[in-house]
Amino acid sequence: MVQLQKPKWVYMGGKIRPWDEAVLHISTEAVTRGLNVFEGLKGYWREDNTTFGIVAMPRHFARLQRSARLLYIPCPVDYEEFEQACHDLIRSLYQKDRDMWLRATLYVVEGHWGEGTVADLVLTAYHQDKTPPKTIDVGVSTWQRSSDISISPRVKTNSNYQVARLARVEGRGRGYSEMILLNQWGRVAEATGACILMVRNSKVITPPPSEGRLESITVEIVASICASLGIDFVERPIDRTELYIADELSLAGTLAELTPIRRIDEYELPGKSPILNQVRTIFWNAVRGIEPHRAVDLSMVLGKPMD
Ligand code: PMP
Q: For atom 9 of ligand 1, which residue has the closest CA?
């Protein structure tokens, strides 16, 4: 059984509170319609544990605002309040040698069918191992990524993760921890919690957001790293069968980082991943502040742990 962490503190209603106080009323649209938008942010210690930086905070906040706007949810905080709240929560929970993943959610706590909508910013943060992600096997799901005329894939809302959950359950039964979702045209959209990167003919390729992938910040980072290495980075539709004959495959996401893929359905990949390994090394050194790269901006959390 998975054992979810239960951190001591959360941020809700404008302040840090004990975990058990973070409750929503059953009558809210956050509960009745599962209405929320969210972001997942990653914070890394530098290798020597001297500083802690959260990756791409302005871009995460901007995407949270875009998701909220598309679902008619007013964003209750500005960037400065958002950053301060994230820093306060991290400072209350962080421990040396443990990175953190922070979930920032706007839950709809007042309003009805889009009238009088009020949202609350809730932050939860969880400890993460400092080790890079291990190579995984993935499958292609029979479930379909939603399309722009239902719940747009560019909206990071829990509704879109209902299908992702179905795909994960399907995958678990087949021995896969991640699954690839196809779009309404039968082409590749993304994984359930990350985008997909494919290498063919020395080019790094990913589908554009209009193929049903999230407007991913990690993909933006990868594109910029590729530019600095002189590697071609291309956004174009990808057929399912191209994944099976790819030279290299990787997940790309804040939590997934750049997880290498060894096998997809019954197809084993060549094994070596020379191009994406170069990108991985630069990504890793940049997020850890070892070798800064213009693709990765860090919001530094200053100060000692709070207790
Ligand atoms: N797609 C989905 C469905 C995701 O949940 C994520 C993680 N946020 C991504 C892609 C990758 O986006 P990002 O690189 O911004 O984390």
A: 194
